[in-house]
Amino acid sequence: MPSSKTDVNSSLMESRFGNGKLSATRIGRRIGDERNALMSEESGIEREFLRHTLATLAYRGGKAIRDAPEGFGAFKAGETSRTPSQILAHIGDLLDWVLSQAQGAEKWKPRRPADWNGDVERFFKGLAALDAYLASDAPLAAPAPRLFQGGIADALTHVGQIAFLRRLAGGPVRGENYSRAEIVAGRVGPEQSTRRQEFD
Questions:
Q1: What is the spatial distance between Cα 11 and Cα 110, in angstroms, rounded to a whole number?
Q2: Contact call for residues 119 and 88 (beta carbons, < 8 A)
Q3: In degrees rounded to 5, what are phi and psi of residue 176?
Q4: How confident is the model at residue 43 (pLDDT cuts 50, 70, 90)?
């Protein structure tokens, strides 16, 4: 039985690396391999969280734009406010930007709004492209937290703005207990679960 902290550490090293049979180089390599495996696992968890966040954006954003009133894309709450089409186009710009950051070729290239249906289509295409990259083995050129705190968090904010404008335009979105929503990583298209706990 080890009689001291030094003996305990020695015993642990022997159980992990053998009794003096591995060179310092081989020990360092093994420690490096274990560290890389741990970092890879952490990266996988972060990527999965980002994918769930995108699925949340698809779910909540899809609800905000689904069955919008006629002409809603051009609705203005005030002279200086942005229209829903302008906001949705901006969300598309944000998703393209985040993807470029993840790929290591960061660029900001805003596009003018199309018609409402075109902006809706771009929204879901942007989500699908970013989700596909996160689901792949391709490396992230930017840390996952930075991807989240920038464009993705901005997009969630703007979805809330669209939902608010729906109410002002006379076509409010029903409230929902989103913590109970069936949101699944990878489900980033317009087809979402219809099992909802909604309220007025």
A1: 60
A2: yes
A3: -155, 145
A4: confident
Write the burial class of residue 187 (CB in 10 Å: 0-12 exposed, 13-18 middle, 19+ buried).
buried
HSE, CB side, 13 Å, CA atoms: give it for residue 53: 22
Cα(190)–Cα(61) distance, integer angstroms: 9
Nearest one of 66, 88, 74 to 161, comparing CA atoms? 88
CA 158 – CA 152 distance, rounded (Å): 10
- The residue assigned the tokens 């081989």 is 26
Q: What is the pLDDT of residues 140-199, one digit of tens each?
A: 999 999 999 999 999 999 999 999 999 999 999 999 999 999 999 999 999 999 999 999
The residues pairing with 176 across neighbouring beta strands, listed in sequence order, are 198
**154 HSE (CA, 13 A, CB side):** 16
For residue 156, which of 49, 50, 47, 56 has the smallest C-alpha distance?
A: 56
CA distances from 36 to 13, 29, 101 (A): 19, 10, 23
Residue 198: enclosing H or E segment and its boundaries?
Answer: strand 198-199
| Mean pLDDT over each residue of the chain, to the nearest integer | 88
| Residue 104 DSSP one-character state | T
Residue 38's pLDDT band (cuts 50, 70, 90): very low
Query: Is the distance from CB of 111 to CB of 89 less than 8 angstroms?
Result: yes
The H-assigned helical ranges of the chain are 5-17, 24-65, 84-103, 116-135, 144-147, 153-168
